[in-house]
Amino acid sequence: MRIRAAVSATLASAGILLAGWQSGAHVAGTASAAGSTAGTTGIAGGSVSSGSAGSAGSAGSAGSAGSAGAAGSAAKAGGTFVGDVVQTRFGPVQVQITVSGGTISDVTALQLTDDGGRSVQISNYAAPLLRAEVLQAQSANVQTIGGATVTSDAYLTSLQAALDAAHL
Q: For 42, 61, 130, 145, which has the most beta carbons within 10 A of its beta carbon?
């Protein structure tokens, strides 16, 4: 019985480590994608938007306190800020925000998951709901859309990168 318990505990630990590794690989993949798309970013529909990916940085980096003055002025000045491209198993997701007067005035999905008809349906359903929630909350701290968890998570991750670029 002790051997069975030890094997079960080992397998449970391995499962937890694997889940953490996959989460870390997703974050690292997002940062790699951001670095490789720093110049121009393709947009579904054939048009191209030029923008800066900002600093991908490390997952644990909080930024420097000395840049707080510049951050506040960038957000108040407004502009358009493009989030990172987030790769999902259903395709890439990328979000752009427009800031005016220090608040988010618009959110545009530049890329949404497109792997198959069902994925497109889910993206077309989730994007307007997420946009409305983000505009109301003025942050990426919103609930994911039921039935569109992968799309929602990627949307909010890209949104957070755009918010970071805007210093909001």
A: 130
